[in-house]
């Protein structure tokens, strides 16, 4: 029986553990991958969306997340009053705007 134990112990000593530097390097590579593929693009999109929201003004033709399109008639803090068609106005959050249309787009639809 001691024969099996001694060979198992010798095999365990022969297998070396990875060095601390290799482990830290692998963790650094994973962090870099997540940064460049997930965190950085997401923060860039969020920054662009904040700039879009800040640039909204009266008369801007916009598209909302739900697919509605309209022209901003009044801005009230975090909300905007949007005219969807003549006489139909709704109040929506400015953050729900996903894009600004070129001037005159609504007239051509």
Automatic annotation (TrEMBL):
Signal peptide, first to last residue: none
GO cellular component, one term: plasma membrane
Compartment(s): Cell membrane
Principal place of residence: membrane
Keyword check for Lipid metabolism: no
Keyword tRNA processing found: no
Sorted UniProt keywords: Cell membrane, Membrane, Protein transport, Translocation, Transmembrane, Transmembrane helix, Transport
Bilayer topology annotation: Single-pass membrane protein
Residue ranges crossing the lipid bilayer per the database entry: 20-39
Highest taxon of the lineage: Bacteria
Gene Ontology biological-process annotations: protein transport
Similarity comment text for this entry: Belongs to the YajC family.
Protein name per the record: Sec translocon accessory complex subunit YajC
């Amino acid at each position: 029986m001691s024969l099996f134990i001694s060979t198992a112990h010798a095999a365990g000593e022969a297998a070396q553990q990875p060095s601390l530097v290799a482990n830290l390097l692998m963790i650094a590579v994973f962090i870099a991958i997540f940064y460049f593929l997930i965190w950085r693009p997401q923060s860039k999109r969020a920054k662009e969306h904040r700039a879009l929201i800040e640039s909204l003004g009266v008369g801007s033709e916009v598209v909302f997340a739900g697919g509605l399109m309209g022209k901003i008639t009044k801005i009230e803090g975090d909300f905007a009053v949007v005219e969807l068609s003549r006489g139909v106005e709704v109040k929506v959050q400015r953050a729900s705007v996903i894009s600004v249309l070129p001037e005159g787009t609504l007239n051509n639809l």
